[in-house]
């Protein structure tokens, strides 16, 4: 086998580390995208019984966005196996308790219901902000594209760029906006 073929062969079977920025993203639509990388569906060697998936690092899980009034209406169920041990937790309460849990539960739900699910979840690393440990960050070699465009806030645009933007009209000096 030539060196080029050996490199291609190694690249196909190697576990790659991907990073995904969850800022202003819907966690349930993001979960389907993350699931593809955890399972290895993007690789040409994928087989349902072959565990060839990659690692995924999710950052900014504190800044996720649920659609409409899902923060108040979406409920997470838990039961501790005792009589009357059932609890329902609203999404905003769960997110306030732990900002990574909603993304984790969404990805867990998106994965297939078989014995490989725990192995997939061990390769998922979720962080509430963009502080990722250095040893984990040095392994990252690919960035997963966000599904939803995140606009830049006006107070984050430099003043020179704002001043150079063409104006439609200019107000007189003594004009008072009401």
From TrEMBL:
Record-level Gene Ontology MF annotations: mRNA binding; structural constituent of ribosome
Q: Which PANTHER family match?
A: LARGE RIBOSOMAL SUBUNIT PROTEIN UL13M, RIBOSOMAL PROTEIN L13
Superkingdom in the source lineage = Eukaryota
Tell me the HAMAP family matching this sequence. Ribosomal_uL13
GO cellular component terms? mitochondrial large ribosomal subunit
Q: Does the keyword Chloroplast apply?
A: no
Q: Which family does it belong to?
A: Belongs to the universal ribosomal protein uL13 family.
The UniProt entry, under Gene3D superfamilies, shows: Ribosomal protein L13
Alphabetical keyword list = Ribonucleoprotein, Ribosomal protein
What are the BP-aspect GO terms?
negative regulation of translation; translation
Q: What is this protein called?
A: 39S ribosomal protein L13, mitochondrial
Keyword Signal assigned: no
């Amino acid at each position: 086998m030539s060196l080029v073929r050996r490199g291609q062969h190694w690249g196909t079977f190697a576990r790659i580390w991907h990073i995904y920025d969850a800022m202003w993203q819907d966690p349930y639509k993001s979960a389907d995208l993350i699931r593809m990388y955890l399972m290895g569906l993007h690789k040409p060697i994928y087989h349902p019984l072959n565990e060839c998936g990659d690692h995924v690092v999710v950052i900014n899980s504190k800044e996720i966005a649920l659609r409409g009034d899902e923060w108040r209406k979406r409920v997470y169920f838990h039961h501790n196996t005792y009589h009357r041990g059932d609890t329902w937790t609203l999404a905003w309460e769960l997110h306030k308790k732990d900002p990574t849990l909603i993304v984790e539960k969404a990805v867990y739900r998106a994965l297939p219901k078989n014995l490989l699910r725990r192995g997939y979840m061990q390769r998922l690393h979720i962080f509430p902000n963009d502080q990722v440990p250095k040893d984990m960050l040095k392994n990252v070699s690919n960035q997963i594209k966000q599904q939803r465009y995140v606009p830049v806030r006006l107070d984050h645009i430099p003043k020179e760029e704002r001043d150079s933007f063409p104006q439609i009209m200019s107000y007189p000096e003594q004009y008072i906006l009401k």
